[in-house]
């Protein structure tokens, strides 16, 4: 977990960020950039690189236990981090949105083996769900569920992780946003969760933008130019490549360079989009970038941040 803490003694709200990546990696595009947005907005911020599945070993509940422990660490050390433990929000992108929403609906199920942490409240005070994976049903992002549960998951596991089925009155307030044209996670995911929140009486906001691809993060020029800061969320991938190179996995040693290259950990930087594609994305960003201001105002009201 990487922290962005103001160098003063002011007690601030906290924000815990969970990047996306289909539970196979933690995307650097959804880490430093949103962290700095919230930091500049007055939050003390934490980015969680939760356990991911790159070698096709199902994760099951491990990421959920990771994020629950992160919430408890932050709350238990609230004086050290200068945060108000009653004003701790989460922000999850794509699979990270599924992870945050999982904690929102299943927080009563998650116990910590360390009694010192288990006694700390794990329910967040608010959640921002950005183009979230939600359902394991008709509109599922299958890649995320394969990484989480394996190729042939138990139906009960699939049902447990189909989060729209588990929303109840104890779910914290949620801010949900997505684009109509998301080709990776169907927009129905956000509608299903918003509908479940409405049915359960959970306070929520739901914003659907008319155009935009999946994974637009903060939708700024920095994001478009892929200026993501240090790729610290990819540390698990880097360590895996080292293990592959050393012959400690079932993969051939030459696969290490391919792994590093795929995630640009070899020093390279790919041109992801053509000039024409960038111009189209800029046009979409004009609308989508508004999610940040909408979320800021929603959080100010939800967390009663009268001074921000």
Describe the structure.
By secondary structure, the protein is an alpha/beta fold. The protein folds into two domains: 2-226 and 274-302, Alpha/Beta hydrolase fold, catalytic domain (Rossmann fold, 3-Layer(aba) Sandwich), CATH 3.40.50.1820; 228-271, no CATH class. It has 13 helices and seven strands. It has helices at 32-40, 62-76, 78-81, 95-106, 115-118, 142-149, 155-160, 188-200, 221-224, 235-245, 255-262, 275-288, 291-302; strands at 2-4, 12-18, 44-47, 83-93, 126-130, 174-179, 204-209. The chain has a seven-stranded mixed beta sheet with strand order 1-3-2-4-5-6-7, sandwiched between helices. Strand 2, helix 1 (32-40) and strand 3 form a beta-alpha-beta unit. Helix 2 packs across helix 4 (95-106) and helix 10 (235-245) runs antiparallel to helix 11. The radius of gyration is 19 Å and the shape is globular. It comes from Candidatus Mediterraneibacter pullicola. Pfam families: BD-FAE. One of its GO terms (molecular function) is hydrolase activity.
Describe the protein's topology.
Blueprint: E1 2-4, E2 12-18, H1 32-40, E3 44-47, H2 62-76, H3 78-81, E4 83-93, H4 95-106, H5 115-118, E5 126-130, H6 142-149, H7 155-160, E6 174-179, H8 188-200, E7 204-209, H9 221-224, H10 235-245, H11 255-262, H12 275-288, H13 291-302
Parallel strand pairs: 2-3, 2-4, 4-5, 5-6, 6-7
Antiparallel strand pairs: 1-3
Helix pairs in contact: 2-4, 10-11
Keywords: Hydrolase
Domain BD-FAE-like: 20-194
Pfam family, one: BD-FAE
């Amino acid at each position: 977990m990487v922290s962005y803490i103001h160098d003063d003694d002011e007690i601030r709200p906290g924000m815990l960020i969970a990047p996306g990546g289909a539970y196979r990696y933690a995307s650097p595009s959804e880490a430093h950039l949103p962290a700095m947005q919230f930091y500049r907005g007055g939050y003390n911020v934490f980015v969680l690189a939760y356990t991911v599945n790159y070698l096709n070993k199902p994760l099951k509940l491990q990421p959920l236990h990771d994020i629950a422990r992160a919430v408890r660490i932050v709350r238990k050390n609230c004086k050290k981090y200068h945060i108000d433990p009653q004003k701790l929000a989460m922000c999850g992108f794509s699979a990270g949105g599924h992870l945050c929403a999982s904690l929102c609906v299943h927080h009563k199920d998650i116990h910590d083996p360390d009694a010192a942490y288990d006694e700390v409240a794990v329910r967040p005070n608010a959640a921002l769900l950005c183009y979230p994976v939600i359902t394991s049903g008709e509109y599922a992002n299958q890649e995320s569920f394969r990484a989480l549960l394996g190729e042939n998951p138990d139906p009960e596991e699939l049902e447990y992780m189909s989060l729209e089925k588990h929303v109840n009155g104890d779910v914290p307030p949620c801010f949900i946003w997505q684009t109509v044209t998301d080709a990776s996670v169907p927009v129905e995911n956000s509608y299903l969760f918003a509908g479940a929140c409405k049915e359960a009486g959970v306070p929520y906001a739901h914003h659907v933008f008319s155009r935009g691809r999946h994974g637009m993060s903060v939708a700024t020029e920095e994001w478009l130019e892929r200026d993501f800061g240090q790729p610290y969320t990819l540390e698990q991938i880097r360590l895996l490549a080292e293990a592959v190179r050393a012959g400690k996995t079932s993969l051939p040693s030459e696969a290490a360079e391919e792994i590093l290259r795929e995630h640009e950990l070899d020093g390279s930087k790919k041109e992801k989009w053509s000039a024409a594609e960038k111009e189209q994305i800029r046009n979409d960003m004009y609308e989508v970038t508004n999610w940040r201001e909408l979320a800021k105002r929603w959080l100010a009201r939800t967390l009663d941040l009268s001074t921000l």
